[in-house]
Amino acid sequence: MQRLAATLSFFTRLPLWKFVKIDPRHYERVVELWPVAGWLTGGLSALTLWLASMAFSAPVAALLALAARTLFTGALHEDGLADFADGMGGGSSRERILAIMKDSHIGSYGVITLALYYMLAASAIASMPAVIACAAVFAADVWSKYCAGMIINAMPYARKREEAKNQTIYTRIRPATLMAGFVLSAWPLALLPWPLVLASLASAAAASLLIVYIRHKIGGYTGDCCGAVFIISELCFLLAASALYRTLG
Length: 249
Known about the structure:
Number of helices: 11
Oligomer: single chain
Number of strands: 0
Structural class: mainly alpha
Shape: globular
């Protein structure tokens, strides 16, 4: 119960810590249950999209769905994406990249990356019928969180514990938990028409390539890297789903 409360309070704005006494050590294992948080955040996005599509055009409904999740998570992952873009775009060395990512100020790379993300994600969602788009939004959130979580098993944390933003270094995910997480994360894909299930491959490929890139650039991950891998993987899922719908129907 404490692990679930830690996960949901970490990845969303739900103040569960007010009602459940959470041992700090549980925050080291929140990535294991990241897809569980995806069921909540993805479900909220899908529900918002469905309700908004009844009153607004597809692009507006898509933006409202993205906005709802951003508010619900406190822009946690989007902040990571912006810091990641600033660091990788403006840093010429490992030390400089890490320093830029830790800086709370947003730079031009971060602004441009966030703008492109919202425009591309909203356009991809709006290009599909509401029912299919809702399923895609839900599945993309859950599945991409699972794919992004692989980063903590692929490399060590890039900083010392005392240098971490939240003073937490995530515990590696155990094999049994990985298998359980796969089942939990893959099930939402069954909601999609069969050709669109292939979009999961785009998400997995994006996460894998980003993990290799991050290892090459800084030799380890940070919280910002986790958020960036999730957001980019999710975007690749949505873009692939949109392309598959248009070409294969």
